Amino acid sequence: MTFEKENDAYWMPFTPNRAFKKNPRILDSSLGMYYTTTEGQKILDGCAGLWCVNAGHGNKKINEAIKTQVDRMTYSPSFQAGHKLAFELAERLANLMPDDLNHVFFTNSGSESVDTALKIARAYQKARGKPEKIKLIGRERGYHGVNFGGLSVGGIMPNRQAFGPLLPEVDHLPHTHDLAKNAFSKGQPEHGVDKADRLLDLIALHGANTIAAVIVEPMAGSAGVLVPPKGYLERLRKICTDNDILLIFDEVITAFGRMGDSSAAAHFNIQPDMMTMAKGLTNGAVPMGAVMVSDKLHGALMNGPENMIELFHGYTYSGHPLACAAGIASLDVYAEEGLFERAARLAPYWQKAIHSLRRHDCILDIRNIGLVGAIELKPIEGKPSVRAFDAYLKAFQAGLLIRTTADIIALSPPLIITEQQIDTIVNILDDILAKA
Ligand code: PXG
Fold first, then answer.
1. Cα 96 to chain centroid, rounded
2. Are 26 and 74 part of one and the same domain?
3. Quick one: 223 and 268 in the same domain?
4. Number of structural domains, the chain?
5. How far is the CA of 211 from the centre of ligand 1 (A)?
6. Ligand 1 atom showing the smallest separation from residue 276 Cα
7. Class of residue 24 by CB neighbours under 10 A (exposed 0-12, middle 13-18, buried 19+)
8. Is residue 275 domain-shared with residue 305, that is, in the same domain?
9. Do residue 181 and residue 244 come from a single domain?
10. Residue 338 clears pLDDT 80, i.e. is over it
11. Burial 283-292 (b: 16+ CB within 10 A, else e)
12. Which residue of 101, 265, 297, 349 shows the fewest CB atoms closer than 10 Å?
């Protein structure tokens, strides 16, 4: 595909538009582990699209469910009316996700899920007579989408820089990345539980009576795969509980098998008060997000006269019929194909494979958990990001799709990947990194 003036209308997200259009990469179809470009090149998907196609591309069952729903009803109002699939999917999620996360608010994306969760946190504190508990605590290098709430608690500078002022009454924990102590960790790093204690400093500074909620990604994805140090999430949970602060896990990336379990909360056996999700919820087939809310929070908001709206919030497309159909079918496929267990089973092979790249001089760190991996490269002096993006371009030429953020390569393949395909990913990267 060549780009003429008439191809310039599409303003691409998170893309250097002008450079891309000089050298476009256009995907045309996808099946299983592969994309095919308009040039007919097959591309092995090393990152499940954008961390969402967990069951692989073109899954027949998911496609059929969407097609069936297309012919039955493509839209139903979500305010003051409903349709069966939304109730069914909510019930299925409540059964799948840990303990008392039994209530589901549907959105259309991870960003909307995050802003919804932050609003529910504040509404809950008001509803229980603590209106002064409004502060929201995020974390450096956190990614919680691109809407104003998520940006405000997020901690990736370039995402925030152009858009201020962001929300007031927000503060941040330090990130947990510590290359000096934890480089080349396999699974959870040993050092860094103390980073959770910085929440005690924020509590000392602001007062627990002003803090509504803490939001973290249990494993930070977008900032380059920052795996939580051993004991860190447990400690955050304890400090939040001790100080009557809600803990929100942003599981947009980690839910639906990525960690070898239904969620990071289940994997680490930690109970958040709310969980945000999107991506794998529908296998990326139809946009959808959700917030899972504990009995305690939901109960506190289900009060007042019964004919009154309890939460003045929602989207035209909350619980969209096509998304619900895709969501239910995705949950079926995850269960029938045992994909969460498959990810857990493949994780040791994956770990060994990606750590085998360690010999290259340009590598600062390799880290992994579940079916996620990251390779952090030494930046070229004066040219940050160039080394990793060059690897991205070379990988694409060689038939492999990866993600890069700054000088970090992130890998998160569909959970249907085979050991042989893991070897292919590693072999392609091995060649590229040898010359990087
Ligand atoms: N929270 C988390 C933890 C995310 O990872 C969002 C919220 C926002 O989701 P939406 O659906 O609004 O994009 C995300 C999204 C990458 C990459 O390659 C990561 C995301 C999106 C696109 C690319 O790191 N995460």
1. 18
2. no
3. yes
4. 2
5. 25
6. 1
7. middle
8. yes
9. yes
10. yes
11. bbbbbbbbbb
12. 349
- Residues 130 and 189 grouped into a single domain: yes
pLDDT by residue (tens digit) across 389-405? Answer: 999 999 999 999 999 99
Which range of residues forms the domain containing residue 192?
Answer: 63-336
Structural contact between residues 202 and 211, judged by C-beta atoms closer than 8 angstroms: yes
CATH number of the domain at 380, please.
3.90.1150.10
Whether the upstream peptide bond of residue 305 has omega within 30° of 0, thus cis, is no
49 CB under 6 A from ligand 1?
A: no
Mean pLDDT of all residues belonging to the chain: 97
Q: Give the model confidence (pLDDT) of 339-351 as tens digits.
A: 999 999 999 999 9
Which structure tokens are listed for 144? 């919680």
| Spatial contact of 226 and 175, defined as CB atoms under 8 Å apart | yes
Ligand 1 pocket residue status of 144, Cβ below 6 Å = yes
Structure tokens given for 166: 């962001």
- Reported as a single tens digit per residue, the pLDDT across 299-326 is 999 999 999 999 999 999 999 999 999 9
Question: Which of these three, 306, 336, 366, is where a domain ends?
Answer: 336
d(CA 281, CA 191): 32
Asked if 342 and 130 count as a contact pair (C-beta separation under 8 A), the reply is no
Question: Which H or E element spans position 227?
Answer: none
Where helices occur in 101-154 by DSSP H, the ranges are 110-127, 148-153
Residue among 51, 146, 219 whose CB has most ligand 1 atoms within 8 A, to mutate? 51
How large is the average pLDDT for residues 98-123?
A: 97
